[in-house]
Amino acid sequence: MTTQEAGTVTIYERIGGAEPIGRLVEAFYRNMDTLPEARELRAIHAPDLTETKRVLKLYLAQWMGGPGDYSAERGHPRLRARHMGFKVGTAERDAWLLCMKRALDETVPQADARHAILAALAPLADWMRNQPEGQD
């Protein structure tokens, strides 16, 4: 989602930049804290989400075509490798996507942008699974 052709508006620009991404991440983790379907997903995160939120904001900004601060600070995302220490199965994927969908619904007013973001995140979330089907 980070590719930008000359003259093309990125999703980052379309939704309004860093501030809306900050609201999106806050809503995402609020959903993770409150939705019963996300209880197990929340349990694999640290009690204090301050750093996790900061990193996700950087990542999503870059992923949506904004500043490259994530890579400048942390290098290549290597998302799957960074999550290998955690059990990520179908239930965790589905909970993550549910939290993100609800956060997008809450914070991104443009329906086409919400759809584009979720459509691009769904295969990424599926790729993060590290548990065989039926063993998650």
TrEMBL record:
InterPro entries: GlbO/GLB3-like (IPR044203), Globin-like_sf (IPR009050), Globin/Proto (IPR012292), Hemoglobin_trunc (IPR001486). It comes from the Bacteria. Transmembrane segments: none annotated. It comes from Nitrospirillum iridis. CDD domains: TrHb2_PhHbO-like_O. GO terms for molecular function: heme binding; metal ion binding; oxygen binding; oxygen carrier activity. Keywords: Heme, Iron, Metal-binding, Transport. Gene3D superfamilies: Globins (1.10.490.10). This is Hemoglobin. The keyword Transmembrane does not apply. Belongs to the truncated hemoglobin family. Group II subfamily. The keyword Heme applies. It holds the Pfam family Bac_globin.
